[in-house]
Amino acid sequence: xxxxxxxxxxxxxxxxxxxxxxxxxxxxxxxxAVGFAAAGAAGASVPLRAQMVLYLVGMVALNxxxxxxxxxxxxxxxxxxxxxxxxxxxxxxxxxxxGLLLVAPVLGLALxxxxxxxxxxxxxxxxxxxxxxxxxxxxxxxxxxxAGVRGGAVMLVPIVFHPDTFATFSALMVGLVDPSxxxxxxxxxxxTRPLIAAGYGLALATHVGLGYVRGGGRSWxxxxxxxxxxxxYFAAVPVLIAVGLYFPFWYSARQVARTVTVDSEPVGDEExxxxxxxxxxxxxxxxxxxxxxxxxxxxxxLATVYWAVPNPLAGSDLLPGAVAFWSIxxxxxxxxxxxxxxxxxxxxxxxxxx
Length: 354
Description:
Layout: H1 2-14, H2 21-41, H3 48-75, H4 80-103, H5 105-130, H6 140-161, H7 163-175, H8 183-186, H9 189-213, H10 217-236, H11 239-261, H12 280-308, H13 318-343
Helix pairs in contact: 2-10, 2-11, 3-11, 3-13, 4-5, 4-13, 5-6, 5-7, 5-11, 5-13, 6-7, 6-9, 6-10, 7-13, 9-10
């Protein structure tokens, strides 16, 4: 019996029939969770400045390029008219987010938190669809619950286990527009925190239990194990490090597995391919040109947001100010990433699974 259990656990973690990034992503979060839990028990901690550096390295250098790749792969073979509509709506969503932030910075912060959860949750369910399967998720509400649990771990669990750091940087993010706006809401943090803890705990238990009742099996085992791992990871690892490393080590790595696993022909036709045909050198050069253009466009949006907000570094030192600004900026560009790139693009989308 023990050998059977060990074999089941081993198959879950190694996932030999799937892309290597799946077991590697699980191993990365497990090692970090166990390591930081042990360090916390021993009274050790990582200096805040080092946490901020790790956050920026993970979010800027490691994760941002993958977001660009998702759009590139999605739009690569689409008709030019579709691409222009896509870009126009994308820029409109960015403008709307910036406008909301300037008029109501606390609502802008709430939207930023929601976007982070939606990206992790919805994208995570799509990975399950393409890899281990979602046979245990029988209804649409159950799928939304699965997305809410996975995405909620990214923001809700840190509120419960790392409230001081979360509140500090939330105030800085709001401070990009109005340094005093977050104060009245921070006073209620002691009340909302246990409510969030109870709500998320109930959602996690319901998700795991309902999945077992409605199907169980390997797909449930993978989903339940990963959901519990995410909750443990964001509880044990300091929030800046946890968020900064989650997106490259978990989200991006697992989207690579989804892309590789989905072998259906993409929507569109070779005649609309952005990088076209021809020799390998010509294709590589055109792909490089498209990626450079995307990077310049992203920098232009960043510069526009920096110019638009009254206090781009929130009146703080360079490092915490950069963390606050980047957190808001990445949420601004991630809103259309989720809404335009997935929810509105029903034909294919950035998280395409046939």
